[in-house]
DNA sequence: TAAACTCGTTGAAACGTTCTCCGAATCAGG
DNA sequence: CCTGATTCGGAGAACGTTTCAACGAGTTTA
């Protein structure tokens, strides 16, 4: 940056330009654009006119520097190429922009190393808050955010120690509906393709499934519990493993929709039909699920609700108001029946 | 922000803390962490030690304020829920983070209004550069960026006035391969479902198609030129319109893969088979295209190439080096044959 | 031996805001 | 018309950094 008296030209458009054009002090301009009520209406009008004519807008860096608030929010997700997350991002962005925030996105790709890098990026940009929408998070990262007084929201299963920065999801409800649906159709041999199990919430989905299966009076078969990785490839590979088994299940539940789509692909490749040969249930209800062939029966977790709950909670922590932070309702899940489930093949 | 002498406590971790701990001036600290070569090795070591012990990192707001560089890059896309864009974002993010930049994402949802809002957001955060990866952009927005000396990169068709801030895509090459492929299979009746035609590059894809069709000696039929909107729904609706026609085409080309997936859905609903009843070709080659049922034959536009070319060009404009900005090669496109094309039904 | 140069370090100004404090202006009541 | 209350505008410090100008200690030259 040039330090010379005036570096020649370019008297950069600043609050000062507005002040002089409106013939008021810079303080008055500042108060006007920050909607402080005590400012005289006549002057305010002059200020707004000047702002408009100059097409001025405040320098957010300077604002951030002095206020200590960057108006930046971090959003850490697992994998941006999994359509569930873009849908989530879209909701986040909407709410954030409405409230004057921008979003910094970090994609971990399921690697703890990358997760750490993302967290560091968030730190360096001094985000005002972070939403961690991955399937799990390391404790030490949470601690680090906490030690910097950065509010953090993350997803987890409902717990009896309701720390309000946890957004709890009731995975069981939807999975239970799914299992019941399958049982009602006559399925007794149900496989489950999980997500990467080192992630808490992937594990939570799997335990919910096992729990439900037992409640339905079905004894789970270890052979039919496959670990996937929440990707298309993972779903395909897992299904191929299942097909290689001597004793086949009649229905497959998946930890997310991408896995289910991978399964559909594997079955198509093997010339097997859904739902005639296998029933299939996904999880998430991404928009695409309605468009698979055949349309996917899946457990819906409203990412709209999720994003809004996360944002509400995050923002309420940023602007401490008198209204108490209400204990968050758990996010609910429910079955959406489409066309990948049917009675088991009479074998 | 409290203005009282010391607001009690919290002597915020700053470059000053490091300076006093390393027993040097803040200027020396600054030069050290910015890798200015003239700094004495002994002092540098002391500084790095202090940095490490305090776990210090510089405040990016302050940096941005004084340097005039926000190290923020804008990325404006059409629609984050179209999987093509997340794939693009992923590449962008990778390159950007490597170079110390963060990305601000704006999704226009094809609305000029929203596009304007996005541009404004970018302005307010004083991004150092913007990549506009939508299917078109208003001239006045480009002008505004230009008047603020913000480098802009956007996509367009190859033109004889190669302004280096245009990333040109050779849509024709891939579409030509697609048309030839169909013609070779015996198709003479080919429909095209375009994107929203107010967008330049959607229009470009359509003209490329018309051009290729004529070159292949086929007379295009106006009835088979449907305007879609690059979404699943748009593809489905367009296909339903086509199915209502008295004279049916035998093959469908789509302006993007999402449209093609919508077409597959409409055909599935109508109990029509691909490729037996209709051949289908998409555009983009999103990752999902390999996983549709049947796997989608499509024109590949490497979003990796696209993102990297965009970033390279953008970054080279940010750090003007001696090495001349090479004239960008147009991004190429090519056909990927999978299983949605076959000979036309003998009617 | 003093002057002229280097080299490396430091103090201080500047970036564009916000916000506190204080002085000036306005107004109502006596 | 004067006093006290009230309201509003302006000067200036502070935020955390970068970088310029200046300075001090060595080193070389006259």
Output the keywords.
homodimer, 347 residues, 434 Repressor (Amino-terminal Domain), Rossmann fold, 6-stranded mixed beta sheet, 15% strand, DNA-binding
Architecture blueprint of SSEs:
Two copies of one chain form a homodimer.
Chain A: H1 15-22, H2 26-33, H3 41-54, H4 60-67, E1 72-77, H5 84-98, E2 102-107, H6 112-124, E3 129-132, H7 139-147, E4 152-156, E5 166-168, H8 171-185, E6 190-194, H9 200-215, E7 225-227, H10 232-243, E8 251-254, H11 257-269, E9 279-284, E10 297-301, H12 303-318, E11 333-336
Parallel strand pairs in A: 1-2, 1-3, 3-4, 4-5, 6-7, 6-8, 8-9, 9-10
Antiparallel strand pairs in A: 10-11
The first copy, chain A, binds a DNA duplex (30 and 30 nucleotides) through residues 1-4, 12, 14-16, 24-28, 30-31, 34, 38-40, 43, 58-68.
Briefly say what this structure is.
Two copies of one chain form a homodimer. With 347 residues, chain A is of the alpha/beta class.
Task: Describe the protein in words.
Chain A is of the alpha/beta class. Chain A has a six-stranded mixed β-sheet with strand order 7-6-8-9-10-11, with helices on both faces. A five-stranded parallel β-sheet of chain A has the order 2-1-3-4-5, sandwiched between helices. The first copy, chain A, folds into three domains: 15-58, 434 Repressor (Amino-terminal Domain) (Orthogonal Bundle); 70-169 and 303-329, 3-Layer(aba) Sandwich (Rossmann fold); 171-302, Response regulator (Rossmann fold), CATH 3.40.50. Chain A is built from twelve helices and eleven strands. The longest helix of chain A has 16 residues, at 200-215. The N and C termini of chain A lie far apart (78 Å). The interface between A and B is large, with 49 and 50 residues. Chain A binds a DNA duplex (30 and 30 nucleotides) through residues 1-4, 12, 14-16, 24-28, 30-31, 34, 38-40, 43, 58-68.
């Amino acid at each position: 940056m040039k330090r010379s008296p005036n570096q020649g030209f370019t008297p950069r458009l600043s609050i000062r330009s507005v002040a002089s054009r409106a013939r008021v002090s810079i303080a008055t301009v500042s108060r006007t654009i920050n909607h402080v009520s005590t400012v005289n209406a006549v002057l305010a009008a002059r200020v707004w006119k000047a702002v408009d004519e100059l097409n001025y807008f405040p320098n957010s860096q300077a604002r951030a520097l002095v206020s200590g608030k960057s108006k930046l929010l971090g959003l850490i997700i697992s994998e941006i190429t999994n359509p569930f997350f873009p849908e989530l991002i879209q909701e986040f962005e909407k709410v954030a922009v409405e409230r004057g925030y921008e979003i910094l996105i970090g994609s971990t790709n399921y690697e703890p190393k990358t997760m750490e890098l993302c967290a560091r990026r968030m730190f360096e940009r001094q985000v005002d808050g972070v939403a961690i929408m991955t399937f799990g998070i390391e404790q030490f990262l949470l601690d680090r955010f906490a030690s910097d007084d950065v509010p953090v929201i993350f997803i987890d299963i409902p717990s009896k120690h309701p720390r309000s920065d946890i957004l709890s999801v009731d995975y069981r409800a939807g999975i239970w509906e799914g299992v019941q649906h399958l049982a009602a159709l006559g399925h007794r041999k149900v496989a489950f393709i999980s997500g990467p199990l080192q992630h808490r919430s992937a594990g939570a989905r799997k335990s919910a499934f096992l729990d439900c299966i037992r409640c339905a009076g079905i004894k789970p078969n270890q052979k039919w519990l496959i670990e996937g990785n929440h990707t298309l490839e993972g779903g395909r590979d897992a299904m191929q493993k299942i097909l290689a088994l001597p004793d086949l299940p009649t229905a497959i539940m998946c930890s997310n929709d991408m896995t289910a789509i991978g399964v559909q692909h594997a079955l198509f490749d093997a010339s097997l039909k859904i739902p005639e040969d296998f029933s299939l249930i996904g999880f998430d209800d991404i928009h695409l699920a309605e468009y698979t062939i055949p349309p996917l029966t899946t457990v819906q977790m409203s990412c709209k609700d999720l994003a809004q709950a996360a944002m509400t909670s995050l923002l309420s922590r940023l602007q401490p108001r008198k209204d108490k932070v209400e204990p968050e309702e758990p996010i609910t899940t429910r079955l959406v029946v489409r066309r990948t489930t049917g009675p088991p093949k009479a074998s």
